[in-house]
Amino acid sequence: MYRNSIVVLCAVLTVTSCTEDLTFPPGFLWGAATAAYQVEGAWNASDKGESVWDRFCHEHPEKIADLTNGDVACDSYHLWKRDIEMAVELGLHFYRLSISWPRLLPSGFSNHISEDGKNYYNNLIDGLLEKGIEPFVTLYHWDLPQSLQDLGGWANPLVADWFVDYARVAYTLFGDRVKWWITINEPLIICDVVYNSGLLAPSIISPEVGNHLCTKNVVMAHAKAYRLYDEEFRPKYHGKVSVANHHIWFDPLSPADAELAELARENCVGKYSHPIYSKTGGWPPALEKALGDYHSKLGYTRPILQPFTQQEIEYVRGTYDFYALNQYTSRLIRPAREGETFGPWPFADAIQLNAKTQADKSWPTTLSFWFFVHPEGIRRQLVWLKQQYGDIEFVITENGLSTQAGLDDHDRIDYYKKYLRQILLAIKEDGVNVTGYTAWTLMDNFEWMDGLSNKFGLYEVDFNNPLRTRTPRASAHFYRNLIKTNKLDLGFVQDEL
Ligand code: GBH
């Protein structure tokens, strides 16, 4: 109670007179992230295969806000030495990167490994390690080989086998040096956003069926890749494997909507986490029922969210070494009124739950239409996760702000201060075991449907310059200072740039 009062007091007092403990636990890990398609470029270098993002951007340039694509992006395929330099300048403990599946396996299958693809990732991994920076590697950050999409992609249950074959290649080639693995980045986006909105590659709109088929296949693919590591690679390499989920924190619009908000949390997070992290495994029971009802009302005669067998429940349960969360934003939720229409779940509404979502008027907007700033959301999310899945290790694998161009990004610094302060409260007041944090993103990059004009970077990238010059923003100085001191300086201001 006393400590809580101090915290409340600190919130209203100026920073200097505050006794709030703003240090992070000793050994706390600091990193920054990127993803292959967003930074690498070299989309057809050497024998690289085509990805769904290559195809989508080339066939539908109009679907990207500024008509750009990832053909060159930050050109990290050629400029990886500069990327490592930036990681060194910031003092990062780890750099979260992703491997492009079609760069490593041009056909999508493991029958042929690209020599150049292999060399690229070896160089990057070795270069980081030489500087004492841990490579934190995501196997899948949305760039599915187009060849596999042509065979049904994430809607085909065989994708789990294709994925585990790819994972085996990556563990075999890089597992001696990579100790942190993420199997899949944000199943929610891969399944729910893609099939509900068509806004992202491969842009297949199937909001009643495709998204739900994808859900189980993604969970199975993760579980297989985890089990493979656990059985064959962990004994010699001793690394850690998890999946990175996307989290939107849902609060009820009015207290009467509390149960609905809980169902929305299950639909957003529980759907991809309950099978893996809960004691019982399987789908969250209330959600499985709600989706079952939804589909029967639509006239389907069998469940569309594929049920697990008991054997599958046990196979999937426990397939984690830590909990990885990406979090940016929040929503309020309420039941839909008669006759209201719905935008796509999860950033607009929740037709599956007959519910409408909105942002609170007090939450600042950002350059991204889906993104409202709500720092308390990340603390509530962490507490909820601990309540649901127990006292496990949490690593924040993405968090950051989108802005316009410019080096003086005090709004980004402000965002980091506010979110990190809430994370500290989760650690110190709520006892959540958060052991690491990852800024999204190291440098401006191809922000999917928002193209190149929407900036998330600690470093600004000049996309008009063939050399793709990278320049630190004020926030890079803030982040470097944070890592150096392991302490949040709420008064930090960067004057000189
Ligand atoms: C993360 O996705 C990604 O992992 C990362 O690659 C991305 O650059 C970063 O965050 C910032 O967006 O969903 O209909 O609004 C976060 C989720 C996915 C939200 C793409 C916006 C655009 C289409 N983002 N999405 S929609």
From TrEMBL:
GO terms for biological process: carbohydrate metabolic process. It comes from the Eukaryota. Keywords: Glycoprotein, Glycosidase, Hydrolase, Signal. GO terms for molecular function: beta-glucosidase activity. The active site is at 398 (nucleophile). Residues 1-18 form the signal peptide. Its EC number is 3.2.1.21. It holds the Pfam family Glyco_hydro_1. Belongs to the glycosyl hydrolase 1 family. Homodimer. PANTHER family: GLYCOSYL HYDROLASE (PTHR10353), LP05116P (PTHR10353:SF36). This is beta-glucosidase.
